[in-house]
């Protein structure tokens, strides 16, 4: 299953010119508000007819301006989860879930009971959407989209309207969705936390253009992505395996670059994790630092240096098999003579678990 | 005087009066029922679509509301009379005659009540979030299905309100009706025409008052019915 998208569209003073491919897994379209993300997802859905371009899913053409093909929304067989849920207020939760099944072909797909169990909405079936919490509504909306047996799942900021607690409640369901179903997901978001946790492929958008696109780990560790990501949100991910649960409440992880200690995560020994290291929380040192409160220090080699337009610089490092990003000042970069090939030590101020239960090498 | 109305209603009324009441109910019923689908369609078009001539359609729909009823009645006579453009065609092709028949009264009532019906339904449609309809289409529903399963259930209170408003308006229509189909007892004499006739003859006041009370009773019943149906439908939709 591959979605290929090539679009140009113009409205008001805004022009969109975007092209990318979305393979299996979760493809996150990331960008600030107004970067054109929602226009892209609506064009894929068929809710918007772009001026020109080509959209195909697995070779099946959904839109082709040169051949005047525009498949209407209801025939595209896509599941769309909107920011606000958009449940039908006059139908019960069960009827909402069944809605898409009336129109879907009677072929094998995700079963009702399976989806209800995966999303934990069994107790809500006879209720009306009006009485549900925001998180419950969104889970029902995801279920409704899945049960329409879509060939592609579209999600437009599905967590943006929820508070942190509700987000944390839904994210594990989205991870299960990614890991347990065979449906590719196009996920629009401006939250780096969500993207780092869910995305397998990342499309970075800025002012209607695709700035970078590729496997999430590659894009996130590329210094050239930083301007589009924003210096505060940029940061790479490392793969890690849970090595031990320490007695003082820490969890020891093993990475290809060495051991890391993080606040306890509830995971079994041997579980694979992805951890996210924000670029601005990495300090670099030419010599192995001593007498520091920071627990996590990795030996690394500089692979790229990108001097920004301001006083900052982004350093890409190779630590074991993974790439890291560090944000330092231009002055420090010059003072430490950081250049490709230089060996140094990365001091990690914060380490956050981005993904649990990473299958294979991720 | 009120106790003259219930109970011995049939006995208190002469056959012609009784026929005026039943004729009015029949005329209003068919006027409402037959114009309702068109009313929903026009309201939907005006609320949801941009098309060439939209303002003209809007104006045409509202015309009977602002024109003097006599003018509307006369225009109906010109177009739907036996020699009129449409009336002549319908007469020759289908044997359908409007002029001076109860069918003409129904047509007049429908035309006069149409703007009220369309306004009520249009407001209801505009209150439905188009995003819900979009969501339905992403789930595989074609336009007619979206309308039948999402839009229509959500606007049902408005449709009922519009229908009852139109029914009440049809019951009370006088000026255009009397111009188009005249005031023939037993054939085209509706409740308002009958009241008017009684007021034209000396000593007819008491008879007129009976009919006035019946008109008030029917109007109030319609009003309460619409409130009750509207509320229960709205409750069902809100799902509480």
Features:
heterodimer, A: 362 residues, alpha+beta, Rossmann fold, OB fold (Dihydrolipoamide Acetyltransferase, E2P), 2 domains, six-stranded mixed beta sheet, five-stranded antiparallel beta sheet, B: 240 residues, mainly alpha, MetI-like fold, globular, disordered N terminus
Describe what you observe in this structure.
- The complex is a heterodimer of chains A (362) and B (240).
- Chain A is α+β, with helices and mostly antiparallel strands.
- Chain A is built from 9 helices and 21 strands.
- In chain A, a hairpin with a 2-residue loop joins strand 13 (250-255) and strand 14.
- Chain A is globular and about 65 Å long.
- Chain B has 240 residues and is an all-alpha fold.
- Chain B has a single domain (14-238), classed as MetI-like (MetI-like fold, Orthogonal Bundle).
- In chain B, 42% of the residues are buried.
- Classes of the chains: A alpha+beta (362), B mainly alpha (240).
Number of strands of chain A: 21
Structural class of chain B: mainly alpha
Query: Largest chain-chain contact?
Result: A-B, 31 and 24 residues
Counting structural domains of chain B, the number is: 1
Count up the domains of chain A. Answer: 2
Order of helices and strands of chain A: EEEHEEEEHHHEHEHEEHHEEEEEEEEHEE
Query: Hey, roughly how much beta strand do the residues of chain A contain?
Result: 35-45%
CATH architect. name of chain B:
Orthogonal Bundle
The proportion of residues forming helix of chain A, as a percent range, comes to 10-25%
Specify the number of helices of chain B: 11
Relevant CATH superfamily of the largest domain in chain A: P-loop containing nucleotide triphosphate hydrolases
Oligomer category: heterodimer
* CATH class annotation of the largest domain in chain A: Alpha Beta
Biggest sheet details of chain A: 6 strands, mixed
Number of strands of chain B: 0
């Amino acid at each position: 299953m591959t979605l290929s998208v090539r679009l140009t569209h113009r409205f008001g003073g805004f022009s969109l010119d975007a092209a990318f491919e979305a393979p299996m897994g979760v493809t996150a379209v990331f960008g600030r508000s107004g970067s054109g993300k929602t226009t892209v997802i609506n064009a894929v859905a068929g809710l918007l007819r772009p001026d020109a371009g080509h959209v195909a899913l697995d070779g099946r053409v959904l839109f082709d301006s040169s051949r005047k093909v525009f498949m209407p929304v209801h025939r595209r067989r896509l599941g769309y989860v909107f920011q606000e849920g958009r449940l039908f207020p006059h139908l019960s939760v069960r009827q909402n879930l069944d809605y898409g099944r009336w129109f879907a072909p009677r072929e094998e797909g995700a079963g009702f009971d399976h989806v209800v169990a995966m999303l934990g909405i069994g107790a809500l079936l006879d209720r009306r959407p009006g009485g549900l919490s925001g998180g419950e509504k969104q889970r029902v909306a995801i279920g409704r989209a899945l049960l329409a047996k879509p060939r592609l799942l579209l999600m437009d900021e599905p967590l943006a309207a929820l508070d942190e607690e509700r987000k944390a409640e839904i994210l594990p369901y989205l991870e299960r969705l990614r890991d347990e179903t065979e449906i590719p997901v196009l996920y629009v978001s401006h939250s780096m936390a969500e993207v780092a946790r869910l995305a397998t492929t990342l499309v970075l958008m800025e002012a209607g253009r695709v700035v970078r696109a590729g496997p999430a780990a590659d894009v996130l560790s590329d210094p050239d992505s930083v301007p589009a990501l924003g210096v505060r949100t940029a940061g790479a991910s490392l793969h890690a395996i849970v090595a031990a649960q320490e007695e003082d409440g820490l969890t020891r992880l093993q990475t290809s670059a060495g051991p890391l200690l993080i606040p306890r995560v509830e995971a079994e020994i041997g579980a694979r994790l992805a951890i996210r290291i924000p670029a601005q929380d990495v300090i670099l040192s030419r010599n192995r630092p001593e007498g520091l409160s920071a627990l996590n220090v990795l030996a690394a080699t500089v692979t790229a240096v990108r001097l920004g337009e301001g006083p900052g610089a982004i350093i890409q490092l190779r630590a074991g098999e993974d790439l890291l990003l560090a944000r330092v000042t231009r002055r420090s970069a010059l003072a430490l003579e950081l250049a490709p090939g230089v060996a140094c030590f990365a001091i990690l101020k914060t380490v956050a678990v981005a993904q649990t239960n990473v299958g294979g090498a991720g | 005087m009120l106790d003259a109305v219930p109970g011995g209603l049939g006995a208190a009324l002469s056959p012609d009066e009784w026929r005026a009441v039943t004729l009015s109910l029949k005329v209003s019923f068919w006027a409402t029922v037959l114009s309702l689908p068109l009313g929903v369609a026009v309201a939907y078009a005006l609320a949801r679509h941009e098309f060439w001539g939209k303002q003209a359609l809007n104006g045409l729909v509202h015309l009977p509301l602002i024109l003097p009823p006599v003018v509307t009645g006369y225009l109906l006579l010109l177009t739907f009379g036996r020699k009129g453009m449409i009336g002549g065609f319908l007469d020759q092709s289908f044997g359908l005659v409007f002029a001076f028949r109860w069918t003409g009264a129904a047509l007049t009532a429908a035309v006069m009540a149409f703007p009220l019906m369309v306004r009520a339904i249009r407001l209801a449609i505009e209150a439905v979030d188009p995003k819900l309809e979009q969501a339905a289409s992403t789930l595989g529903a074609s336009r007619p299905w979206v309308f039948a399963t999402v839009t229509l259930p959500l606007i049902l209170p408005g449709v009922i309100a519009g229908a009852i408003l139109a029914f009440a308006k049809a019951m009370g229509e006088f000026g255009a009706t009397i111009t188009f189909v005249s005031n023939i007892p037993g054939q085209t004499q509706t409740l308002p025409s009958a009241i008017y006739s009684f007021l034209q003859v000396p000593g007819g006041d008491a008879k007129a008052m009976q009919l006035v009370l019946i008109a008030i009773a029917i109007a109030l019943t319609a009003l309460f019915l619409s409130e009750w149906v509207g509320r229960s439908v709205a409750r069902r939709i809100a799902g509480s």
